[in-house]
Queue: 2 jobs
Job 1
Amino acid sequence: MSSYWIDSINSLKNFDTITKNYECDICIIGAGITGLTCGYYLSKLGFNVIIIEKDIIGLKASGNTTGKITYQHNLIYDYLIHSYGKKYAKAYLDANKEAIINIKNIIDIENINCDFEYKSNYVYTTNQDELTKIHAEIEALHSLNEDVEFVTETSLPFKIAGAVMNKNQAQFNSVKYMYGLANCITKNNSLIFCNSTASDFQKDKDGYVTSVNSYKIRSSNIIVATHYPFKKLSRILFY
Ligand SMILES: Cc1cc2nc3c(=O)[nH]c(=O)nc-3n(C[C@H](O)[C@H](O)[C@H](O)COP(=O)(O)OP(=O)(O)OC[C@H]3O[C@@H](n4cnc5c(N)ncnc54)[C@H](O)[C@@H]3O)c2cc1C
């Protein structure tokens, strides 16, 4: 099954493949939403960034999401409060609320057309026996001063037993958003290369050397944003 977001774009822009060695401030490996968001903020701050992507932008996890931007990740706050305490749960909530604001700010500042809309988010059950979990989540969120509601009606074409409804969440076309970020990055004295695979990186005295196809990128810092690590983490942690 293919992604609605990917299918909604007629043709995905293919950035050039790397054809020579480069030097830059920060080399970012992976052009999913993580790599592109880092690249956006860093290039905006004036760093010279190079992002390398082994495929083309948008085809991996970030282009295959449900496109929702929410702080409600399944039922999580009751679990966080009971496992780690209220302070930790509040920090998680605040960080995710801030992410919604940050994404909207980027969209507005950069005028990115990505079908962003504020929507309510629902986590529902059709099973009466699971309603205790929904109520526990609502109680947990109320204890964090969040205005959430228990509802039994949604626009779903089937009956539910109940749901937690969070207002002021959002949805967007994640692929359009990523190409919007990519366009901003290339306007900020930075580069993106696609079909360019990092096979390794090594620390040297002034920074890092990343091997990409048969070329090298020398940079002061690197960010690995490949979703799954492509290199043994134990070797990175010792640096
Ligand atoms: C079905 C599904 C639905 C989801 N729905 C949502 C949702 O609605 N809302 C939400 O917030 N989150 C959602 N998520 C989670 C979200 O998609 C991920 O957390 C996020 O997309 C991860 O982004 P990323 O940039 O880290 O990874 P990716 O988007 O996978 O990007 C990593 C990039 O690195 C590249 N790469 C890998 N190895 C190399 C290499 N050696 N050299 C160069 N490039 C390399 C890959 O090609 C890829 O483009 C969902 C996830 C799934 C699977």
Job 2
Amino acid sequence: MSLIVERVRVAGPANGGSCVARVDGRVVFVRGTAPGELINLRVDEVLSKYSRGTAVAILEPHPARRIPPCPFAGVCGGCDWQHLDPAAQRALKSEIASGLLGVPVGVAAVEPDDFGWRTRMKYASCDGKPALHKYRSHELVPVGRCLLEAANPQTRLGDRVFQVAPDGFWQPHVAAPQVLTEAVLDFLRPQPGQSALDLYCGVGLFAAVLADAGCQVTGVEGNREAVANARRNVPAARFFAQDVGKAHLGKADLVVLDPPRKGAGAHVMRELCTGGRIAYVSCDPATLARDIRAAAEFGYELGGIRAFDLFPNTHHVECVALLIPS
Ligand SMILES: C[S@@+](CC[C@H](N)C(=O)[O-])C[C@H]1O[C@@H](n2cnc3c(N)ncnc32)[C@H](O)[C@@H]1O
């Protein structure tokens, strides 16, 4: 039987989509709420250092609370912040990223900034209907068509068409290739003839714009099929199918890295900090902050930071950091 705790005042947001509340001095990470709300919460899980819970009644709502447009919000595990309008979501992402990175981080809106932005959806099937998973569960919710899905998804940057395997990685937001390549080029300021590394390069998105700028580009990516596509997509660059952590990277004038959520880690950061400019594209400000701290040990400092709301209605945020020799 679940424990319901009544009239709990919610404190600040935590990285990961929940907000922090305290019950009898103990921290509870609560889903489905927002800072300042007065709620009744259900305790879902009690762990040694904290508990997890869900808001089951909102007694005093956040001023930006809205009725979630999707009938499956709160049940399906996909959108955890649909109960807030997009501007309030960005304000919370900014607060979380600023806290983790130790500098002010404004999160820019990117159109579409609410629904219809997702380039790729992976549905399961439930009784023949497209379905998504419930939060932290193998159970399925038959959702039909998810509201996040883009009406006209494109695997494309400007006129350049990229080949991607059906289950391979491509940036989830329709505008992400444009927004992220612009930020990376702005930070790196590539010049013809410079050497450039594109690490965790997928099918060669950043390699393409660096090669177009006249750089000698080397891409490294662990997925062999992605590397085969990168070679077709960007014939001017060379690509290696390798674990970045095990690759001998050598010196480069410019580096862009776009690792998965767990980040690059201290070993890779040490390999990269050899005097060039580094643009670090990250979908998790916590691991980005850890890797920036590692870079500081190897003589680098933060030269700039941009953040974009490339995952509206979820707690996720995309950051691009410039790292330069200090
Ligand atoms: C966030 S995606 C970025 C892809 C690409 N930069 C883009 O924008 O399309 C991360 C990529 O890192 C690759 N990857 C994950 N771990 C890796 C590792 N240890 N070494 C090399 N590639 C890795 C994944 O296969 C994936 O393609």
